[in-house]
Write a structure and sequence with these properties.
The chain has 13 helices and 16 strands. With 374 residues, it is α/β, with parallel strands linked by helices. The chain is globular and about 55 Å long.
Length: 374
């Protein structure tokens, strides 16, 4: 039977062909990358087109989380990614990313840390094999588009076969390690490299880990992703912007060099920090100034704050009269200023910028900033 999504598949294949032809000479330093932090791949032809327009070739794909289970008395995977929806997946390179809670390393010892590194390696390999299998199925569907099998075969040999077999060249580990867990976490990173000798092992680096090197140490990896967001405590009512505050960022980055190659991670997200009097009530997801300004029951106050003027229900949250919401997250001007500062401060060390995370509406709003790093 003919495929149900022939046109999008054909357009995507053409876009991939164009990318390889028109951008083959570009430096990878100039190409932005993105994190993908959902649990299901849901890319559309619109996503593929936007990736092509922005020159995005690489995706840091969160495959699963790891947390300690008291019930099982072991580290277990959680929130595993469903990769079945690869029909419009436009990226030339995928970096599997695994988030591990710091609490996990408080429970491990060298033996169980080695076991965890081996299990994560096997699980990441299973993602690589599954995605390659789904690509092979996809390629067979694309072949149905061509009426001339000879022509189709030549196209496969030139472009698609290379795109089909994507090996994971890098694995990124994400953990907010502390001084008390650093020794075991660093041992785990070394074990990850031992189990993946041909693969680049990278890890995330929080701002306090960048600044407080004597206490936090230098991770034994080949590259780090400097996470320039979540600069404040969202629960603190005195915060001005818990996601990105340029003054706080400047304080953390006073040291201009770091002994490892770096990528730069910047935020493309917002939230509403919700308070009752001075008590933190929770986070209202994906709130922005534009959204807040359109809500008639909110009154604008200074410093990105909005007062609730009538009882209302948002999802499962019940906001009462007198509650207030602070909008955290950068607008395009703030993100541009932060990007310019980091570029001036440590730009020579940065290989690429990784934005968190993939969201079409946000990307369109910040398109000028994304392109501005070049």
């Amino acid at each position: 039977m003919p495929p149900t999504k022939t046109a999008p598949l054909f357009l995507l294949f053409c876009a991939l062909f164009c990318i390889s032809c028109t951008r083959s000479g570009d430096s990878p330093v100039d190409d932005p990358a993105f994190y993908f932090w959902k649990t299901t791949l849901d890319f559309s032809p619109t996503d593929a087109l936007l990736a092509h327009q922005l020159g995005v070739k690489k995706l840091y794909l969160r495959c699963f989380d790891v947390d300690w289970s008291e019930g099982y008395k072991m580290a277990i995977p959680q929130g595993e990614l469903n990769v079945e929806g690869l029909d419009d997946y436009p990226f030339e390179e995928t970096v599997p990313t695994v988030y591990i809670t710091n609490a996990t390393f408080k429970q491990l010892n060298p033996k169980t840390a080695t076991e965890l590194a081996e299990k994560i390696t096997r699980k990441v390999k299973s993602y690589e094999e599954r995605m390659n299998f789904l690509r092979s199925v996809k390629l067979d569907r694309i072949s149905y588009v061509f009426t001339d099998p000879t022509k189709a075969d030549s196209v496969y040999n030139l472009e698609a076969r290379q795109w089909l077999k994507q090996q994971f060249k890098e694995i990124q580990l994400d953990c907010d390690w502390t001084a008390s867990t650093r020794q075991l976490y660093f041992f785990f990173l070394k074990e990850m490299k031992r189990f993946n000798p041909q693969t680049l092992i990278s890890c995330t680096l929080r701002l306090h880990q960048y600044r407080d090197r004597s206490a936090m140490g230098i991770p034994p990896v080949e590259r780090v992703s400097l996470m320039c967001y979540n600069t404040g405590d969202v629960k603190d009512p005195k915060e001005n912007n818990a996601i990105l505050d340029l003054k706080v960022l400047e304080n953390y980055l006073k040291k201009k060099t770091y002994p490892l190659s770096m990528d730069l991670a910047l935020p493309l997200f917002n939230w509403g920090a919700w308070y009752r009097d001075r008590e933190f009530m929770g986070i209202l997801g994906d709130w922005s100034k534009e959204k807040a300004n359109q809500l008639a029951y909110l009154k604008v106050e200074p410093q990105n704050r909005y007062r609730v003027m009538q009882d209302t229900v948002i999802g499962l949250d019940y906001l009462r009269y007198g509650d207030w919401v602070r909008i955290d997250g950068p607008d395009p001007a703030q993100l541009k200023a932060a990007q310019a500062f980091v570029k001036k401060q440590v730009g020579k060390q940065i290989r690429q910028v990784i934005y968190f995370d993939w969201n079409i509406e946000k990307m369109k709003a910040y398109e000028e900033v994304i392109e501005g790093w070049r």
